[in-house]
Amino acid sequence: MLFNTKLTIMKFTNKLKTIGLGFAAILLVFNLFAGDPENTKEVNMEKFDIHVFPALPYAYDALEPYIDARTMEIHYDRHHRAYFNNFIAAIKGTQLDKSTIEQIFAKVSEAGDAVRNNGGGFYNHVIFWNNLSSGSGAPSVELTEAINKTFGSFEKFKEAFDNSAKTRFGSGWAWLYVTPDKKLAVGSTPNQDNPLMDVSPIKGKPLLALDVWEHAYYLKYQNKRPEYIAAFWNVVNWDEVNRRYKEAMK
Ligand SMILES: [Fe+2]
């Protein structure tokens, strides 16, 4: 009787061990998958997750005819993904792995070119995808007032933004941003720099980004950057720009 009870307990314990190992294996697979840079999820921009490659918020052809599907696919799935993967590789095993993107950019001059270029490439494109949309909306009352106060009119703001985008030599980005003293400003940055970086001469919180790298427009517009910039205004997601403005002014 005692022997049988002992045997039953041993069998039960072994079963528990098997279940435990199986559970651990499932957890391991789940964690490996969660850390896989190929994994894509929606990302909440208010809590920017540096370890998540976000899903494109629309189909590749959603911004046709202004931005063509082929360009969108290559831009998102090749260029943006490569920046993300290289960024993750550059911060892996370092203190930066546990930092927020804002913390990384605030001291990016100490982090090295791989973090600066790929971290910027990752972040800037997320801002860019989210400030594009097929239904473009309109600037909020608050943002309109600030635009009029800063630039004189919406047309003058557009002109200033366009000039920043057109005159950026080589590759880079044009920005509408809120300065540290809560003023609106437009400007541009080279390569994958942005106004959150300590190396940038323009500083603030990005509201609206325009990618002026040739990879963003060459297939459709070739060397005609001004035509691409003009088309961009048809697909600005003003709801998102309004949300960022509200957030930046808090
Ligand atoms: Fe790009």
For the record, what CATH class of the domain at 141-248 applies?
A: Alpha Beta
CATH architecture of the domain at 141-248: 3-Layer(bab) Sandwich
Rg (C-alpha, Å): 23 Å
CATH superfamily grouping of the domain at 141-248: Iron/manganese superoxide dismutase, C-terminal domain
CATH domain topology of the domain at 141-248:
minor pseudopilin epsh fold
Report on the architecture of this protein.
This protein has 250 residues and is mainly alpha-helical. Among the domains are: 1-32; 141-248, Iron/manganese superoxide dismutase, C-terminal domain (minor pseudopilin epsh fold, 3-Layer(bab) Sandwich). 51% of the residues lie in helices and 10% in strands. The strands form 2 sheets. The protein has a 3-stranded antiparallel sheet with strand order 4-3-5. Fe (ii) ion is lined by residues 75, 79, 125, 211, 213, 215-216.
Index terms:
9 helices; 10% strand; two-stranded parallel ribbon; globular; 5 strands; binds fe (ii) ion; 51% helix; 250 residues; mainly alpha; disordered N terminus; minor pseudopilin epsh fold; three-stranded antiparallel beta sheet
